[in-house]
Amino acid sequence: MFFVAASFTAAAQSIPVDMRDALVVEFHFSPSDLGRAEAGKAVAKIVPTGRPDDVRMAGVVLVHVSSADFIRAFRDIEHFEIGKEVRRTGRFSSPPAESDFVGYHLPDLTRADLAACRPGNCAYKFSAQEMEDLQTKVDWSAPAASERAEEMIHKMLIARLLDYQQRGDAALDVYYDTRAPYSVAQGLHSLMGAETRLWSTFPDLLRYAENYPKDKPPNTDDFFYWQEAAFGLRHVERVQHVIIQKVPRPSVDPHYAIISKMLFATHYFRAAIQFNYVYPVRTSAGEPAVYFVAAQRSYVDGLTGAKGAIVRHIADSRSPARLEANLDLARQQLERAR
User: Fold this and answer.
1) How far is the C-alpha of 109 from the C-alpha of 234, rounded, in Å?
2) Spatial distance between the Cα atoms of 298 and 22, rounded to a whole number of angstroms
3) Stretch 75-93: mean pLDDT, rounded?
4) Which of 50, 107, 220, 243 has its CA 20 to 30 A from that of 94?
5) Residue 6: which H helix or E strand, with range?
6) Burial class (CB in 10 A: 0-12, 13-18, 19+), 318
7) CA–CA gap between residue 259 and residue 246 (Å, rounded)
8) Residues 265, 240: Cα–Cα separation, whole Å
9) pTM, entire model
10) Beta-carbon neighbour count of residue 139 at 10 Å?
11) Buried b (16+ CB within 10 A) or exposed e, 226-265
12) What are the backbone dihedrals phi and psi of residue 45, each rounded to the nearest 5 degrees, phi first?
């Protein structure tokens, strides 16, 4: 997956050779796709993976800002993460605290779904212990039962994140929302392990992502955020760990590699990762610009079987356009702020 970064100085519309190779080989970008990207259009492609629940796609967009300005805006994740499906984003404090959720209410919590939640059959992705706590520590006959449950879920999320910051992936949940328990850590390692090109190009970054909080490489920093997003019939609350690495390259402007792990999601996503690359180029006038690559891979519920095949076909037809729209929104926002 992805590319070996290198110094490049040329007209900003020219995609660097190593990036071009990665987009063609890994994501099947056609000459027409590359031409559109070089002309300033956001372009995204979805790639079959051999299993229906494994969704992999990538997009690229040219942004006329320096890489330093781009990464500065990216770190302001509450304003950077925009799109039709994004409802709200909040960055966690250091250390995370319940006050990070002040004024925020979990999407589409229903008293009936929460009260009925049991291991093997739950509308939300919780561990068996969390489900038991919801049943035994909430008085479902009380008028404020839903508010009490929401408060408890926020406490769970903070406790889970604090534990992750101490023990890494060993602290991640095993979901019991279906009959077959699902380990988030195993799902993340499977997704990352499948990206052989990424491992060969950025081994230190991937090793840190797998072994966090151990093995942190130089020129690397982290942050965590939560987000409410609208996918399908339900809104999803998710928690993300973002790792940014400044990549040493003999170029005027710095390169950046970014990996984001989804640590938790209330619905749909069993495991997900995103890899971004900020690749600086120069216009023929010597002005800075970047190619921003966003590559996503996830294990998603409901895409197997006959019904799942229909859902997958619809997702495949719509997801690239959604990613293109989000990349273009980011481009417009950043270029307006120059």
Assistant:
1) 10
2) 19
3) 87
4) 107
5) none
6) exposed
7) 12
8) 9
9) 0.91
10) 9
11) bbbbebeeebbbbbbbbbbbbbebebebbbbbbbbbbbbb
12) -135, 145
Q: Which two tokens stand for residue 155?
A: 């406490």
In whole angstroms, give the CA distance from residue 304 to residue 124: 19
pLDDT tens digit string along 186-227?
999 999 999 999 999 999 999 999 999 999 999 999 999 998
Whether 63 and 290 have beta carbons less than 8 Å apart is answered as yes
CB 109, CB 120: distance < 8 Å: no
Q: Give CB contacts under 8 A, 24+ apart, made by 101-106.
A: 101/154, 101/157, 101/226, 104/228, 105/150, 106/150, 106/153, 106/154, 106/237, 106/266
Let me know if domain 17-336 sits in CATH 1.20.140.10.
no
Q: Name the residue ranges covered by the structural domains of the chain.
A: 17-336
Cα–Cα distance for residue pair 123/109, rounded to 1 Å:
9
Which residue, chain included where needed, has tokens 């900020």?
Answer: 278
Convert 202-221 into a string of H (helix), E (strand) and C (coil): CHHHHHHHHHCCCCCCCCEE
Looking up tokens 């279906």 gives 178
Residue type (1 letter), 8: F
Residue 16 gets which letter from DSSP?
Answer: P
The burial of 85, by beta-carbon neighbours within 10 Å (0-12 exposed, 13-18 middle, 19 or more buried), is given as: middle
Q: Find the distance separating the first CA and the last CA of the chain, reported in whole Å.
A: 31
Rounded CA gap, 268 and 233, in Å?
A: 10
Question: Does the pLDDT of residue 2 top 60, yes or no?
Answer: no
Question: How many Cβ atoms are within 10 Å of 11's Cβ, its own excluded?
Answer: 12
